[in-house]
Amino acid sequence: MPENERRPRLTPAVADVRRAVREATDDVPAGSLLLVALSGGADSLALAAATAFEAERAGLRAGAVIVDHGLQPGSAEIAERAAAQARELGLDPVRILAVQVAPDGSPEAAARQARYAALLQARKEEGAVAVLLGHTLDDQAETVLIGLARGSGAESLWGMHPRIGFLRRPLLQVRRATTHQACADVGIAPWHDPHNDDDRFLRVRVRHRVLPMLDDVLGGGVALALTRTADTLREDAEALAHFAQEQILDLVEHAEGGLSLDAGALAANPPALRQRIIRLAVQSEFHTALSRQQTLEVSRLVTDWHGQGPIHLPGIRVSREGRRLVFVAA
Predict the structure, then answer these.
(1) Can you give the pTM of this predicted structure?
(2) Which residue from 2, 31, 224, 312 has the fewest beta carbons nearer than 10 Å?
(3) Preceding omega of 93 cis (within 30 degrees of 0)
(4) In 3D, which of 225, 144, 135 has the Cα closest to residue 171?
(5) Does 153 count as an annotated binding residue?
(6) Which amino acid positions bind ATP, per UniProt (predicted)?
């Protein structure tokens, strides 16, 4: 068969997904292995096809890992089907990992935790540089909206990071409709997860009810606006984290059982930076994450100091001693 008949035509959707993969992996050294987290759905299948194509061009190796959560009948067969599609795309190695999902708490959270543990295992065993995830712009918008509704603080509005540790999300600027079209254009049939239509799950209700309603009321473009918000907040947060890390080296003094911070220098900083420095110091020394309310209580020893006694936090006592804020293990 002639080469031009064997290769699918390059459509805008295929080009968009390939470009996203190329940009997300342009720093990976030649000869390295990339693994695609493949469910068999349209997003991960489009990602797998694009990764297979781009890896060959860039001198990389590309494989796939399929996580079988065992949460619905026929999950093993679904995993085998996805593995067969990965092999047809030229991916190698192709791994199927069966996991046990803890029955307690949120099923979504438990499945996510088990999945990421399996991806970490596969990366280590195969020596992969990175694992590519198929989250799209629409997934990002849903994540930001859920965080906003829960009032979980600024960090929840950052959405998903394009890169965090060994995980990379090339498709965060690609619409879900584009991945579906890309699969159709290259002639691969994705699996449709019935959980994606199950209204018991909050994300499904947001996807099928809330976002369409917001688009209707606000005139469209809500998903794009939410993802732009996430990008902006993440950039601001990264800048604040950089400034906090720089300052903490000058403000902190280590002592037996804890540390102290220069209260005068803390007071000279704007609240957002002051509170981040306090949280960072406590996290680094005591491996404890302070809530916003706890951080504000500590901050008042800096900004509203009038001789009050120490603050008792879980495992930590914080007191004002002259010009220093003293943190000791309780």
Answers:
(1) 0.78
(2) 2
(3) yes
(4) 135
(5) no
(6) 39-44
pLDDT, one tens digit per residue, over 146-185 is 888 876 566 667 888 999 999 999 999 999 999 999 999 9
- Please tell me whether 156 is known to bind a ligand: no
| Residue 39 labeled ligand binder | yes
Asked if residue 289 lies in contact with residue 221, where contact means CB atoms within 8 angstroms, the answer is no
Residues 168 and 290 in one domain: no
- How far apart are the C-alpha atoms of 259 and 82, rounded to whole Å? 53
104 annotated as a binding-site residue = no
Same-domain check for residues 11 and 54: yes
For residue 203, tell me if it sits in a domain. yes
Whole-number pLDDT of residue 235 = 87
Domain span at 300: 256-329
> Considering only 39-53, 154-168, 313-327, which range has the smallest mean pLDDT?
154-168
40 carries a ligand binding annotation: yes
Query: What torsion, rounded to 10 degrees, do the Cα atoms 15, 17, 22, 23 define?
Result: 110
CA distances from 243 to 69, 192, 237, 272 (A): 41, 45, 10, 11
User: Are 140 and 271 in the same domain?
Assistant: no
